[in-house]
Amino acid sequence: MNYRTVLTICPYCGCGCGMYLPVLDGCLGRPIPDKTHPLSQGRLCIKGWSAHEHVASKDRLTKPLVKTQGEFKEVGWDAALDLVAARLLKIREQHGPDSLAFLCSAKCTNEENFLLQKFARAVIGTNNVDHCARL
Amino acid sequence: MNTPEVEIRERVRQLLDDDRLPGVLGLRAEHGHVGPHVFNSADDLTALVLEPRYGMALVCQAILDGSPKGRLGVVARGCDERALIEMAKLGQVDLARLVLIGLACSEQQARECMCTRPYPRRIDVGEKVAGVAPGDDARVQQLLAQDVQARLAFWQSEFNRCIKCYGCRNVCPVCICDACVLEEMCWVERGKIPPELPFHLIRAYHIADKCILCGACESACPVDIPLTTLYALSQARLKELFDYEPGLDVTQKSPLTTTLEETPLHEL
Lengths: 135, 268
Ligand code: SF4
Ligand code: SF4
What we know:
heterodimer; A: alpha+beta; N-terminal domain of TfIIb; 3 domains; two-stranded antiparallel ribbon; B: alpha/beta; 11 helices; 5 strands; binds iron/sulfur cluster
């Protein structure tokens, strides 16, 4: 038996509530709210309480899927990224950069969100950047 | 005299070194935070602390469930032991696999939790102090002095703050069902906040004969709903009507499951 509790921050929003993730023999369990976290003081909202659920969910996508002729097919990361890059370039060429929009996420790090807006503005050339927390 | 913390560390060391237990569950301070941790080696015990109080029973259950055999030590306060006893009655934990280090709470701690029994059955560390007498709570007395309408209005205004985080259910050691009715559309409308009154009443009567008043629900509630005040009132009724208290003895059955056996409905 190997039981560990890993101190971490809820990945869902900018509040940053504290939680311990229990791991028993490699399996993730329901978060334990961190009572010593100065902000959340042992409380979580429903998102924090369910933060572990997707990890082992059988519905979770672990490989890129590309839809061809109405059906999803598994492809490698390189093929998926090449396809996305080619399509983005084509759309920009045909309809201009403001025909594209980029959606960031509270579930990403600051750095990842920074990169996405940088990509939108500096590479693609649009200010159409939004965030899931505004939905 | 040694502090309770030092005494607990020594007990844990004995269980690990002398009794060869593979692990003892307690609280560890690390990176300026404190959370549950299984100590496997006596070398780590300087990090063992006793505050803040986390409920240990659900953690014990998760560990025992995940490892089909073997024993586990646990630093257990009165409420942890009562939670474990109640869980054992419900077939959730095997008490024979647990070795409890009984820790009695101080008078101040008992007051903070409004705890009626701030000690486990066997005390290894700490001194037994009297609990807070049931009802010796300004909030309870103030409530009981009002009429039913005023009390209902009070609870409704409290429950109106609920953000339906399910924290009260998640931390409760005796809220044990895998399929929870609070997740069923027919009882609790999805996407509606605050939930209707039944959300709280369903939970209250599901734990009515099991609640050991550990206070975990209230301390997990992000909007400070005084949940244990409600549950303490219903526990007081259980005591008054049936002279029964949950969490004291694993062989005692809840009167809600035996009353009809003893006195069939038509005779009541
Ligand atoms: S006090 Fe709350 S968490 Fe503890 S047993 Fe009662 S209902 Fe469950
Ligand atoms: S912990 Fe409080 S806010 Fe969360 S569901 Fe329970 S009563 Fe509602």
